[in-house]
Amino acid sequence: xxxxxxxxxxxLLLQCHQPSISGGVVVMDSLGSASSSNHNKLACNLSVDVExxxxxxxxxxxxxxxxxxxxxxxxxAGNSGATGISAHVANKGKFWNVEPGGAExxxxxxxxxxxxxxxxxxxxxxxxxxxxxxRHASSCIVTDLTSGEFSGADSAQGGHxxxxxxxREFSAEQRCSKTQQxxxxxRASGKVADEYIVRFREYQHADLHRxxxxxxxxxEKWQWVERNNPASAFPTDFAxxxxxxxxxxxxxxxxxxxxxxxxxxxxxxxxxxxxxxxxEESSAGRSGGGSDSDLEPPQGxxxxxxxxxxxxxxxxxxxxxxxxxxxxxxANASLVNHGRTLLQRSxxxxxxxxxxxxxxxxxxxKVKMAVFDTGVRADxxxxxxxxxxxxxxxxxxxxxxxxxxxxVAGVISSQNSQCLGFAPDVEIYAFRVFTDAQVSYTSxxxxxxxYAIATKMNVLNLSIGGPDYLDSPFVEKVWExxxxxxxMVSAIGNDGPLYGTLNNPADQSDVIGVxxxxxxxxxxxxxxxxxxxxxxPHGYGRVKPDIVAYGREVIGSKMSTGCKSLSGTSVAxxxxxxxxxxxxxxxxxxxxxxxxxxxxxxxxxxEGALRLPGPNMFEQGAGRLNLLKSFEILAxxxxxxxxxxxxxxxxxxxYSWPFCRQPLYAGAMPMIFNATIINGMGVxxxxxxxxxxxPSEDMGNLLHxxxxxxxxxxxxxGFLGLHLRIKSEGSSFYGTIxxxxxxxxxxxxxxxxxxxxxxxxxxxxxxxxxxTPGREKRVLWDQFHSVRxxxxxxxxDSLDVHNDILDWHGDHLHTNFHGMFDSLRxxxxxVETLGSPLTCFDAAQYGTLLMVDLEDExxxxxxxxxxxxxxxxxxxxxxxxDWYHVDTMVKMKFFDDNTRSWxxxxxxxxxxxxxxxxxxxxxxxxxxxxxxxxxxxxGERAHYASGTDIQRFPAGGFVHRFLFQDHxxxxxxxxxSRTSVESPILGAVEAGLGRIAVYGDSNCLDSSHIMSNCxxxxxxxxxxxxxxxxxxxxxxxxxxxGTALGMPDSPLPMRRDDVNFSSYSLxxxxxxRCGTDAPLGVQGTRGYIQEQREPFxxxxxxxxxxxxxxxxxxxxxxxxxxxxxxxxxHRANKVRSHLVLGWWxxxxxxxxxxxxxxxxxxxxxxxxxxxxxxxxxxVRQRKRRRARKGSSCSLSNL
Length: 1198
Prior knowledge:
Mean pLDDT: 75
Helix content: 10-25%
Family: Belongs to the peptidase S8 family.
Membrane topology: Single-pass membrane protein
Low-confidence stretches: 8-191, 276-345, 970-976, 1091-1156, 1193-1198
Subcellular location: Golgi apparatus membrane
Shape: globular
Keywords: Glycoprotein, Golgi apparatus, Hydrolase, Membrane, Protease, Serine protease, Signal, Transmembrane, Transmembrane helix
Strand order of the largest sheet: 35-34-36-37-46-45-44-41-42
């Protein structure tokens, strides 16, 4: 019996330990692949040098041939592969006429060729003369002085072609492959009858263009639209055609094939909506403050203001504004009795001490100021120097019948004592580009812009703006104007206090973008915030606005006489424009426009600006306008190059938000900053050699900076992208790193100079560094799969918001999700951004992948890797979806008169079919519904705004259901638009070693239209996915699924078959590649792609195998990787316990594992136990025999 008891005890002991032993084999097999991402991280941290990867790579990633210069406006912020607009200038060898002799032999050959000069060659000495004096300079034409060949921007195909003659001119050519030209405004005050803008490669008189088109034929199918305006006396670069609708598509294709045609685009309608008091109160309600409204009714002429709906259309619209003061000031009224505050507000000039410059004799004389607006009356008593009024509309009047243009001109140059302007002697040129109905068209603006170039305007104020930065005719014409030395000032937009709401053209780096503040030096609630969104997802936006000025309750001229108050960035913009005119008059007239240009004026404004103590850089730019300080800068100005910002202290809060909120640490995705290069030496320049990082101390060598920058700085500005990383040896470093970024910019010689101009730029940099935080504290944000307007019609996420139909705020952590970002940082999480596919990150480094409001598709490799990362690598996954309903999307379409086509949403609030593909390996799927309502969970009240619900969810998960209004009617043929249904919207489940949580609405995280935030819910979900902490609010026993939710064969939401989504996608038709925002080791590769599983590595091994595609194994010192070894051992132990307790945890085990556990393991245990029992019995028998033998010997001795 004793032997039997021993055998049973031993058998039980083996039963307890054997699964761990046998499971150890499974651990080694399954974790070999999971740990491969950890190997990749090690390889990345070692900065493996691979050909074609890194800063020195000549591969561009946007289809540009290497070995050529590309004109890059700073819209390509911070990365060479960013989606943006570029223009081809010339071959590198021809651009600077480089000879083997060295730098001193470089002679700039820039030439601004014109339709008037008819020069075959343009010498270096004539560059400045051409910039200041030529008419209709269409682009920077570059000549090789050796060969005498001309090269210029090519057509939409982007090829590099030679010029056939000296008169041939090209505008800067848009190079973005994603350009969407079928975008127009939703609202229309009159139908556009199939009108198209045909842009030509050179400037000629309209008759010559018409003759060339008539030779093409099919004259009966199209009609030349005469444009009877002042620009008709000059050569032009475009025509307006009315094409018969039946052949419009085919005829446009034929036009684009013509050698003398640059491109063809629809005639667009621009509209302006006045911002009413209720709108501004709504805006102020999000950030405090309110206002009244007093709209001045239109006067004169027959047309009156039409009642526009308060809907922001796609395309371009004039920046809205509101009339605030309920008691407009009569002409002769004194404001003294209203108190000191109102007196100050009535005199905007006194707030900036303009009278001190007037006392010195500077009043804006001999400066030509173009006001693009609603016109001005010739006999207005407030103006002493109205030089010219031009009408570009289809109305037969030059007068301002709305008051908008008069007010803008008054802020700039009024001489009325009650509402003084900054530059009373400036020459006003009033361009009436808006009708009394507040409508304008592309052709009106292009003609007016051409006329401004031809008549040599010096400063131009533009109150038009919109989110469409891919409107190539407009954007390129702005480049052309600034290249011709016109200083453009534009309102940044009235879409505040939301972030990522910059309006174009104010968001262009060559334009002075102006934001608004109140008299307490607080950012006005209506003022749009940065960053720019041109550069997403791979890069990072630029700092905008450039500068801020008072824009609330500013007193200016009324339409006929007297003064009134207005608010908006359209008010702040003429404040800066007036200051620019006044500052321009400071420079002696003989050298004024050789010294002043868009860059030098921007430098004076930004370097002189007063930084406000509260707002961050994306709210205030360089700070508030400081007229006297800018005057001092211009008084001693010498051409130079500067950087915005001029000091990069990323520890300086709140100005350096969001960078100051999260320090750097080893192993993180790069922190990207996009600085703007401002070149006051010339319209064109280039960086001579790659920038260098010069640390102040030895510890500064722990910082690695990968640079991307403009190949050609044109016009006047470029970008400098900084990708900041801490090297692996700095994983334990705590402190700050300081140093300088140094590079040199060269520009062509000015008139009278023989050598290129040169300037060494120094950008001081300071960053905070901490030891690498634990995996559970690191969250990775998926930016790559976010699609927004432009280039496509991506609808808003909340259908309850009727005044903004577009999703155009960037969907970035630092734009419309900035509140969520701050909340997670306050909770101790470190949030990093992934701008490349899901194959480009090492899952072993992160606790949770956060996917919110995503619209793009997914590569098959991404789906496979994510499954492995979650189930085997222990990665947590949180998904916040949004509405999706095809019938609703079809109803949201509209016929756009601009494009002559139906404009329909490319997807819903989120791309549910794509998300379902991604989540299919986990048995999770969303439905195509639109749900609205309010619910409570755990004492928290939440608002569900146009969300979807869960259709499938695996058994063992926890699901929460609530009663909502179904606005889709999408359940089983329900036709009612609103039906109350109980819907599952929140689910959480374990998946292998990882954990997944899904929620059907992202509006509670989006600061744009948030009604009540759900940051609390996100934190609870992160507790689960990153820390395996089960909050009883999320995991009550009553919500656990005994069986899977939904039928496995139930139909899932389908993709639209009438939309070509590849036009907007970064996935469809695109190669799988990791960008410059990915770890260094995988840049330019397909990422952490697993080809086969490998066994779990020995902890003591000195060699770790890299799973990087095409990379060799990299030796690693394990002493430098203690955290990773601990992580691998920890995960191995978790797998062992998982295999033992898998059934108790409701995990679904595969067939092989089930067979091993149910049959093979018991058989092995029984066999082992039987052998042990037999062995013990035999031992016992031997002992008994020895005992008997011993007793026999004793008896015999007796």
